[in-house]
Amino acid sequence: MRLKSIELSGFKSFAKKTPLEFASAITAIVGPNGSGKSNVAEAFRFVLGEQSMKSMRGKRGEDLIWNGSGSSPRAGRAGVKLLFDNSDRGLNLDFDEVAIERVVHRSGENDYILNGSSVRLRDIAGLLAQANIGSSGHHIISQGEADRILATSPRERREMLEDALGLTAYLYKREDAERKLQKSGENMREVEALRRELAPHLKFLSSQVKKVEETQKLQTELKEKYLEYLKREDIYLKASEREVSGEKDAPAREMKALEATIAHLRHELDSKGKTDAPARDLVELEASGRASAIKREAITRELGRIEGELEAREKLAVEDAGIPQAEALTFGEKLVSELEGALALPPEGLLSRVKTLLSLAKEFVGRVKGSPGTALKTEDLREKKKKLEGELQLVKADEERAVNAVAALRKKIESEKDASREAERELFAAMAKRSDLQAILERIAGREGLLEREKAEFKRELAEAGALIGGAALEYQSYPIEGGVEKRDLQEERHKKLERLKIRLEEAGIGGGEETVKEYRETKERDEFLARELGDLKESTEKLRALIEELTATLQSRFSDGITKINTEFEVFFKLMFGGGTASLALIKEKKLRRGAPESEEEGNPRQGDDASDIEVEEGVDISVSLPHKRIKGLHMLSGGERALTSIALIFAMSQVNPPPFLILDETDAALDEANSRRYGDMIENLAKKSQLILITHNRETMSRAGVLYGITMGSDGASKLLSVKFEEAVVVAK
Fold first, then answer.
1. N or C end of the chain: smaller count of CB under 10 Å?
2. Phi, psi of 618 (to 5 degrees)
3. Quick check: 643 pLDDT over 90?
4. Domain ranges of the chain
5. Mode of pairing for the β-strands spanning 692-696 and 26-30
6. In this structure, how many other beta carbons lie within 10 angstroms of the beta carbon of residue 614?
7. Which parts form a coiled-coil structure per UniProt (predicted)?
8. End-to-end CA distance of the chain
């Protein structure tokens, strides 16, 4: 990779577009003081991503833009473009030429452009780091900055050396991994917090779903029992209807014939002046007795039904005698816990907690309603039973009186009979027969009435079944059963079981089951998703930690090897600059207080006995020098010129170990005498074998080593201009 050119447009004193091409290994830029030649070095800093305005001698971005003159209006933006020959793919882009451009606007906005496409500063920095062009600026040494590597702290010196050794790409990767690790940690804490928030609600919903499942089992059982009950009842009703219809036909026909006979006999007696009053009285008494018997049978049946329902409810009351004290206490504790948790929640978390409290309250209210409701129904049934028992005693007494009266009247009629009263005897026999037939027909009518009530009850039961199990109630017609009509007590037992199931379902509460299950599934899926996400984050965290450890080990290894190599070159250049002596770099570790930790009274040093968590170990690089023929052992004892020579020796040593594509030296030779200038020139020629050099200089010796000279001058309008200057002319200008 080779630097082909730089183009300045509206940057500082370069009002017009000014290109500089670098066709030689060493290019020198010369010009009088104040001509703007150092602005070229700052243009390099700018386009390579420098963010410090101080490093570019400005306070804000607007200071970098040509501000205009009497003959030239001010510019709206400043731009600098670098062009690289990338035939060897030194930059990881599949282009033979790579153009990097940065533009700053007066609004302060910056644009970064790579081969015509807008990119981020981070993209530029990452691309350049691959070619050992880092952010610390070790490859751009401006006037007065040569001493920076000596004056800086050990930690900052280490960063400059890491940059010079081409470790910036690894540092970027590690920083990126550390950011991702920190973000993963934050995400893990957020996910764990969400799971903790979901946990009580999920636990509550789980218990509710179990109740819903139990209710669904009850509904399934109820459906099965209902279908069997309805099918059995349907069979019984149809068979009873056929039976009653068959029993009624013969007595009805006989009654019709008998009525005709009685009418004929009455006509005959009327013609003889006789009456059938005793017979009519007997018939009326017998009818009264039959009515009492029918009423007694109806009351007895109703009493049997009520006693069966009472038995079922009393059994259920024993099985579930209201709400136990322990359960009420548990409800209270759970309610208090949920309310306390709700106080600590952010507004967005309250909705979920309110749903939990609402479901909890509904469940408890349902249980409370269930117990009193069952007790009230049981008490109503007992009152009704007591009333029917009283009515039954009265009906039995009426029936007994009618039976006794019929027996007495029969005896009286029999005693009054004689052979001469044949017609009366026939009438009496016919009326007695009619009375028997009426009793039969009334019993049949009673059965018909009972059958109608049973049909009505069947319809009501079918409607109730539809309300409880839906359209499935109509499936009873195809429900398979074995056998035909069976004893009614078996069906009564089924009915009692149905009633018990209904009561259990009513107490359990069957409303909102689908919504509860749906909410539980959604909440459980959310929790499972968060659990998977947490697992992925933990796995990602482990991988990131392993990557950071690997990158740290690589950095330490390469940095250690690089320091060894730099030390070798540093020793050579130092001896060359000073004619002897020694110089070396050494890794050091310093203990420092973390930011925000309490400091000691003197110089902010860590105090003895400080908490270990407040102290961090900072790794850095120290420089040791020993000048020939002098008892100077430390940097602080060096003169200004000696510091400059030491800095140059170290910078050149760094450049030899891991040469950057180009090196910009802005008047770093200003303080050198003639002898040292020659040494400096020799080192420049040696460096040019590995890196392109752009030298901003006044030094004749330095200029003599350049293959191309650019002259910078400034006109009356304050704008810098580029001139083609011969070497001899450049030397004169430099004076």
1. C
2. -110, 125
3. no
4. 1-133+660-735, 183-511
5. parallel
6. 16
7. 378-426, 488-554
8. 35
